[in-house]
Amino acid sequence: MKLAEKIKQLRNQKGFSQDDLAQQSGLSLRTIQRIEQDETIPRGHTLKQIASALAVEVDTFTLNADKEEDGNANVFNLLALSFIIFPLLGLLLPLLIFIVKKDRTAYEDETAKRVVNFQGTWSLLVFLLYSCATVFKLLHMGYFPYLLYCIGLLYIGNLIFILINIVRTTQFKTVFYQPAIAFFKL
Question: How far does the signal peptide extend, from start to end residue (predicted)?
């Protein structure tokens, strides 16, 4: 069950209208409406206020409360493995699913952003190294083999990061992809 649905269900169980919940929580009616329509995800203070008004623990709303729904977060990690076939696929496939799939949980959303940020950074590095290797080869400079070793290390590093994060995702831990340029803000 999504967070918005859970809040709405608890509100209805308590017999509150949206206006009642807004007054009890000290939030605006429009904020409650946006949350229940899944237009925004409540965090921090807002989540505490809603939990307090509904007389439930904040843990009721945490990301790991409905673990069975967050199984799709691993899809982004698995799609990133496509870099083995073609370097840009590791970026494009997770990005495509991120853009197309709108009904993501907050955990899936964060995982997808971290994967896309890391794969974008990795693709940029690989492109730069391939470009340098090509230029060095054309100019008959002696660094060509070293650049190929660096590219190989980047591939191995990417594979290791993805495999570690597949395990972390199955344990519902936050994925760790570093270094990464923040193309998408977390």
Answer: none
